[in-house]
């Protein structure tokens, strides 16, 4: 999976490299194993890639009036071909064949495409083509910087951090075509939306607007839904920063149990679900967070997190809380149980590695050291979102589209 970004200036006097750099930082929560930026000017493409987070890229000397950026878990992006440079979030069959056909005839090429993906393709002759497949599992947004720049981004955070204005979502099955004179939209395939539930629950930044939803508001409502489903007698509610804080706020509002800050950040954010290094997965919580003793000592704590994959990071967190004097630790998870892998590129492991797929609630509580544990119900998720047009394959083993 990854964060993708494309910026197109309507006048060649612009250099978009720094816009791409900072916009990519606004998307780095979508994956930080690999990153890259490619720009286009009259001399062709210039590309830099690295196995580092986008904030560590050196864009000095990188110039162009249009460009694309990627950060995520797949090496090789931006992908350079004979026809241009592309960034893709998701799974595509025969990527190079797709880009060749899209270069020749965008609408026909995309009509014949197979996969679950969002894509930004900057052609060698200076056209930018954005597309989101008909399932809409992967997000794609469009915005602008005045009348000077068009911006395509996985999330609105990639637009807003560079001072851009969000315009609208690219709809499932829709293409956006950008050249020097025009921005136009075409319906390529009939929409069959199945928005990624993990993107809503965990992946998207809390300040983003994705799938027609304001992520912060949705997560607060999930916390309120957890309170309706599972009331716990406790002294404080804390959330694992940053993604789970809105859940804890919602639970606190609904129950009246005080919300308090349970952790302070150490260094830059680390998304442990996306970490490729096993050591980082184990100690990731300590690297990014440190518990606040005054919030915890002698308290019955409700600990809210957005999801649970292997249970290792929560186990470490609960150990830290108990070592600082927490009397009880009750865990609430803001998603239904993850019991299966994701075939569409989200970093959800195979079933054998998912703790909820292999152990009972009582067994999980013992393993992670909690007094109790509860997951949001699937119906509760549907209730909060307001519809069932979601991909919940990792929670049900039922997937909306073959790849």
TrEMBL record:
Binding site for [4Fe-4S] cluster: 196, 342, 391, 394
EC main group: transferase
Keyword Zinc: no
Cofactor note: Binds 1 Mg(2+) ion per subunit.
Entry-linked CDD domains: PRTases_typeI
Entries under SUPFAM superfamilies matching the protein: N-terminal nucleophile aminohydrolases (Ntn hydrolases) (SSF56235), PRTase-like (SSF53271)
UniProt record, GO biological process: 'de novo' IMP biosynthetic process; purine nucleobase biosynthetic process
Cited PROSITE patterns: GATASE_TYPE_2 (PS51278)
Residues annotated for Mg(2+) binding in this entry: 243, 305-306
Domain of life the protein comes from: Archaea
Glutamine amidotransferase type-2 domain mapped to chain residues: 2-181
Keyword Metal-binding set for record: yes
InterPro entries according to UniProt: GATase_2_dom (IPR017932), Ntn_hydrolases_N (IPR029055), PRTase-like (IPR029057), PRTase_dom (IPR000836), PurF (IPR005854)
Cofactor requirements of the protein: Mg(2+); [4Fe-4S] cluster
Catalyzed reaction equations: 5-phospho-beta-D-ribosylamine + L-glutamate + diphosphate = 5-phospho-alpha-D-ribose 1-diphosphate + L-glutamine + H2O
UniProt keyword list: Glutamine amidotransferase, Glycosyltransferase, Iron, Iron-sulfur, Magnesium, Metal-binding, Purine biosynthesis, Transferase
GO molecular function terms listed in the Swiss-Prot or TrEMBL record: amidophosphoribosyltransferase activity; iron-sulfur cluster binding; metal ion binding
EC number: 2.4.2.14
Pathway the protein contributes to: Purine metabolism; IMP biosynthesis via de novo pathway; N(1)-(5-phospho-D-ribosyl)glycinamide from 5-phospho-alpha-D-ribose 1-diphosphate: step 1/2
Family: In the C-terminal section; belongs to the purine/pyrimidine phosphoribosyltransferase family.
PANTHER family with a match to the protein in the record: AMIDOPHOSPHORIBOSYLTRANSFERASE (PTHR11907)
Protein's name according to its UniProt entry: Amidophosphoribosyltransferase
The species this protein was found in: Stygiolobus azoricus
């Amino acid at each position: 999976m990854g964060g993708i970004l494309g910026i197109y200036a309507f006048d060649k006097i612009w250099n978009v490299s720094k816009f791409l750099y900072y916009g990519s930082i606004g998307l780095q929560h979508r994956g930080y194993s690999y990153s890259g930026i490619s720009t286009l000017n009259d001399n062709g493409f210039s590309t830099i890639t690295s196995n580092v987070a986008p904030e560590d890229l050196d864009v000095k000397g990188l110039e162009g009036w249009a460009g694309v950026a990627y950060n995520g878990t797949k090496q090789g992006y931006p992908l350079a071909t004979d026809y241009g440079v592309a960034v893709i979030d998701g799974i595509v069959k025969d990527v190079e064949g797709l880009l060749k056909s899209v270069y020749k005839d965008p609408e026909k090429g995309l009509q014949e495409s197979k996969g679950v993906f969002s894509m930004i393709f900057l052609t060698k002759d200076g056209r930018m083509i954005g597309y989101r497949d008909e399932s809409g599992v992967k997000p794609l947004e469009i915005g602008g910087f005045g009348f000077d720049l068009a911006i395509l981004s996985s999330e609105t955070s990639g637009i807003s951090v560079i001072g851009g204005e969000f315009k609208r979502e690219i709809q499932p099955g829709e293409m956006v075509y950008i050249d020097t004179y025009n921005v136009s939209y075409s319906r390529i395939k009939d929409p069959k939306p199945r928005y990624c539930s993990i993107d809503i629950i965990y992946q998207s930044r809390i300040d983003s607007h994705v799938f027609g939803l304001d992520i912060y508001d949705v997560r607060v409502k999930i916390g309120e839904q957890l309170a309706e489903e599972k009331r716990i007698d406790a002294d404080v509610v804390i959330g694992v920063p940053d993604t789970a804080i809105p859940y804890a706020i919602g639970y606190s509002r609904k129950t009246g149990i005080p919300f308090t800050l349970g952790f302070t950040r150490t260094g830059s954010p680390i998304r442990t679900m996306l970490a490729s290094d096993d050591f980082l997965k184990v100690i990731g919580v300590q690297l990014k967070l440190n518990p606040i003793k005054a919030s915890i000592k002698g308290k019955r704590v409700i600990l809210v997190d957005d999801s649970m994959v292997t249970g290792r990071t929560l186990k470490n967190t609960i150990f830290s809380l108990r070592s600082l004097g927490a009397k009880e630790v009750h865990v609430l998870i803001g998603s239904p149980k993850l019991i299966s892998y994701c075939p569409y590129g989200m970093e959800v492991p195979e079933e054998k590695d998912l703790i909820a797929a292999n152990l009972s609630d009582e067994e999980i509580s013992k393993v992670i050291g909690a007094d109790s544990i509860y997951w949001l119900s699937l119906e509760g998720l549907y209730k909060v979102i307001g519809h069932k047009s979601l991909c919940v394959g990792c929670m049900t083993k039922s997937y909306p589209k073959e790849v």
